[in-house]
Write a structure and sequence with these properties.
Number of helices: 26
Protein name: Molybdopterin-dependent oxidoreductase
Number of strands: 27
Distance between the termini: 58 Å
Bound molecules: ligand MGD, iron/sulfur cluster, molybdenum atom
Keywords: Iron, Iron-sulfur, Metal-binding, Molybdenum, Oxidoreductase
CATH topology of the largest domain: Rossmann fold
Strand content: 15-25%
Pfam family, one: Molybdopterin
CATH architecture of the largest domain: 3-Layer(aba) Sandwich
Shape: globular
Helix content: 25-40%
Oligomer: single chain
Family: Belongs to the prokaryotic molybdopterin-containing oxidoreductase family.
InterPro entries: Asp_de-COase-like_dom_sf, MoPterin_dinucl-bd_dom, Mopterin_OxRdtase, Mopterin_OxRdtase_4Fe-4S_dom, Mopterin_OxRdtase_prok_CS, Prok_Mopterin_Oxidored
Structural class: alpha/beta
Length: 681
């Protein structure tokens, strides 16, 4: 196994560890033992030498003087961020001492891990951590904040994360970016779309905001938030009415097409136009474009599924390619997630055999605030890693109130003293992914990557896997699985005889080349749905208490509030990662609240005015950007800025499927700070 950490100089292969579909192959330049430059690997078939601005400036983050170098213990009040250095030995024995007491007095379920994908490495994000918490018998965390509603919806239709190979989309003649700001969040899909466009492809973006991806498109279609399922059903209505469906494909590869055909009669263009705000003529034009163009490809984003009805919305859009038989064509079809091809041997990776023999409660991470404040029996300790819940979680005011609890023993493992870490009792310094070994599996392209360490650990920082080994030792555990090397975890994860997309020589290839493509092709005709077909009608949904056919279910309303508030990601941060880096803030300039001319005029707001956005969950101040980038009644802002805590306003309701988050279904009112009356709260 390669290990470059002791090399002083050179250029070394690597991979981007961030939660981004592109999962770029990187080249790391090193001089005198320090990383001096991060660039895209020109030899990587998808990256092709280009990476985003965020990671091009990664060295500034790696060597930021604010980076944590040693363990800390709290000496001030919670949230005050007054700490004093301690040794690793003291930090680990403090944590394990508390956890032994808590386990004895309250049961291990009083301890809750809170980890997400700050580092996508499978060992560090869902390997050694799971082994440890399984053994401890801690409460389970439902990791639902990102894509779980849409994943559940897509799975009802397609059986799992099986979609188009993005490299084939250069052959597409129509590309629809549907609820994805791909220019900022999936830049290599945009590069592929550019190539397709040179070959004559038309690019359509369907969004609530004319953002960078809206402007990139040949045709931007604004929709009212949360109405995309209705739009998709309206398209199906026109497709069938104009006889643009592929009957042969429907017969051979789908279940329930006749039921669907009857059902979409309820979605005539007039009705759909009134729901979605898309003019009737545009609806016809889009349906005809989709029905008459082949290959047609839909990139389904995360935005549409961060709604009350998000799962159904994705489930519905996922039916479209089947109606016109687009899965038959190279470059046709859709991508929501492609993780179906990357199925690891999870029970080996996570040592499921270490789970306790009794049921353990699970907590949905989207309701963390509520759980910290009122779960019964109470959560007494929280271990945060790979994540920054004080900023990223819905209804963060409640999360912060929970973190302020004097009796909550909080540990945060991170590279920086994040907003969450300010409330910690113990802070542990984390290595960056360039300091570790790990396995990466993209959820968009079809490559796996093996990361070898490029530099030694920064200061006294340790990887997640290493920390969990130390914790296991401190707890007095003896099970060998808790002490295995990273390489052993990777090997057991790849050893999945049930995954036909992994070849036997995958491990060897990864060790030699650092990345390797999965084998095989789209399993149309043998999908892991109950029928093996694309399920336009789903009995599983019926059993789960959901409408078995794609259906438009409106989002919830919030009495007394006028605007739908959509606080999405921005171009230069990655969730809250980079949001405190000066360089990245400069790249992004400032947060903005996009508001429609008519709404602004009615509220007495002009561009540049400071606007107070508020509801009964909280408030946030944002400078207005007045124009026609959003529809009336919609407010959009981008980025999780430290100075604009947008999640103080977002609801912690749970989506229709998968326990998903509904960041974009919340309602707010607004006031100009200068002219308006002060809000209620
Ligand atoms: N630069 C950058 N890249 C990122 C991230 C980041 O923070 N910054 N985050 C990463 C992560 S974790 C994820 S999950 C992905 C997310 O990236 P995307 O999949 O692009 O998802 P979002 O940006 O959340 O939302 C996409 C779009 O949905 C729109 N939208 C919201 N509601 C609706 C609706 O009801 N209908 C329609 N049609 N559109 C709607 C928003 O305006 C937005 O443009 O990006 C990853 N990549
Ligand atoms: N308003 C609003 N809120 C959102 C979203 C939105 O669109 N709008 N998007 C949501 C989505 S899709 C997601 S995925 C979540 C993401 O939420 P999080 O998963 O919390 O993502 P980040 O904010 O990037 O925080 C990741 C943290 O992990 C740390 N980290 C990185 N590598 C390592 C490591 O190896 N070890 C340890 N211990 N720590 C490490 C980073 O320094 C960083 O502080 O946010 C959600 N929140
Ligand atoms: S954040 Fe995304 S686009 Fe940027 S380098 Fe990482 S994987 Fe590539
Ligand atoms: Mo995400």
């Amino acid at each position: 196994m390669n290990d470059y950490k002791n090399e002083r100089n050179g250029v070394f292969p690597s991979v981007c560890s961030l939660d981004c579909p592109d999962q770029c192959g990187l080249l790391i330049h090193k001089e005198n033992g320090k990383i001096t430059k991060v660039e895209g690997d020109p030899g990587h078939p998808v990256t092709q030498g280009s990476i985003c601005n965020k990671v091009r400036h990664m060295t500034e983050r790696l060597y930021d003087e604010e980076r944590l170098t040693c363990p800390l213990k709290r000496i001030g009040k919670k949230g005050e961020a007054r700490f004093q250095p301690v040794t690793w030995k003291e930090a680990i024995s403090t944590i394990t001492g508390r956890w032994k007491d808590l386990s004895k007095n309250y049961g291990a379920e009083s301890i809750l891990p809170h980890g997400f994908y700050g580092n996508m490495g499978r060992v560090n994000a869902e390997g050694m951590d799971r082994r440890f918490f399984n053994r401890l018998g801690a409460s389970q965390l439902e990791r639902t904040i990102c894509s779980s509603a849409g994943a559940a919806g897509y799975t009802y239709t397609m059986g799992g994360g099986f979609g188009t190979d993005p490299e084939e989309t250069i052959h597409s003649k129509l590309i629809i970016f549907w609820g994805i700001n791909a220019v900022s969040t999936n830049m290599h899909q945009v590069a592929l779309a550019q190539k397709a466009r040179k070959n004559g492809a038309t690019i359509v973006t369907i969004d609530v905001h004319k953002n960078k991806t809206g402007r990139f498109a040949d045709w931007f279609i604004p929709v009212k938030p949360g109405t995309d399922a209705a739009l998709a059903l309206g398209l199906m209505h026109v497709l069938f009415r104009k006889n643009l469906q592929d009957d042969q494909f429907l017969h051979s590869f789908t279940k329930g097409h006749q039921e669907l055909r009857d059902h979409v009669k309820d979605y005539p263009p007039e009705r759909v136009s009134a729901i979605t705000g898309v003019p009737i003529e545009d609806l016809y034009r889009l349906a005809e474009l989709y029905g008459e163009t082949s290959p047609a490809f839909i990139r389904i984003g995360n935005g549409i599924q961060h709604h009350d009805n998000g799962g159904m919305c994705v489930r519905t859009i996922a039916c479209l390619p089947a109606i016109t038989g687009q899965w038959k064509h190279k470059g046709g079809g859709a991508i929501k997630s492609n993780l179906g091809y990357m199925q690891l041997n999870e029970s080996a990776l996570q040592a499921d055999h270490l789970r306790p023999d009794h049921e353990v409660r699970s907590i949905n991470m989207n309701t963390l605030g509520k759980a910290l404040l009122s779960a019964e029996p109470p959560i007494k300790s929280l271990f945060i890693y790979n994540s920054n819940p004080a900023v990223v979680t819905p209804d963060t005011n409640n999360v912060v109130k929970g973190l302020e609890r004097e009796d909550l023993f909080t540990v945060v493992h991170d590279l920086f003293l994040t907003e969450s870490a300010r409330y910690a009792d113990i802070v542990l310094p984390a290595t960056s992914s360039f300091e570790n070994m790990d396995l990466y599996t993209s959820y968009w392209h079809h490559y796996l990557h093996l990361q070898a360490p490029v530099i030694p650990g920064y200061g006294q920082s340790k990887s997640n896997a290493e920390v969990f080994r130390l914790l296991a030792e401190g707890m007095g555990y003896k099970e060998p699985a808790l002490f295995e090397k990273d390489e052993d975890l990777i090997y057991s994860a790849l050893n999945n005889p049930e995954n036909p997309y992994f070849t036997e020589d995958l491990w060897t290839k990864l060790k030699e080349d650092h990345f390797a493509k999965r084998e095989g092709s789209m399993p149309i005709g043998r999908l892991p749905t109950p029928s093996g077909k694309i399920e336009l009608y789903s009995e599983t949904m019926e059993k789960d208490g959901l409408p078995p056919l794609p259906t438009y279910v409106p989002n919830q309303t919030e009495e007394g509030y006028e605007y739908t508030f959509i606080p999405g990601p921005n171009h230069s941060f990655l969730n809250s990662t980079f949001s405190s880096q000066e360089k990245h803030q400069q790249l992004e300039k400032e947060p903005k609240l996009f508001i429609h001319n008519k709404d602004a005029a009615r509220e007495g707001i002009e561009s540049g005015d400071s606007v107070i956005v508020w509801n009964d969950r909280g408030m946030c101040e944002l400078p207005a950007d007045v124009g026609d980038h959003v529809l009336e009644g919609v407010l959009v802002c981008q980025g999780l800025w430290p100075k604009a805590p947008v999640n103080a306003l977002t609801p912690d309701r749970i989506a229709d499927m998968g326990g998903g988050a509904v960041f974009f279904s919340g309602k707010v009112n607004i006031k100009s700070k200068e002219n308006g009356n002060s809000p209620k709260k």
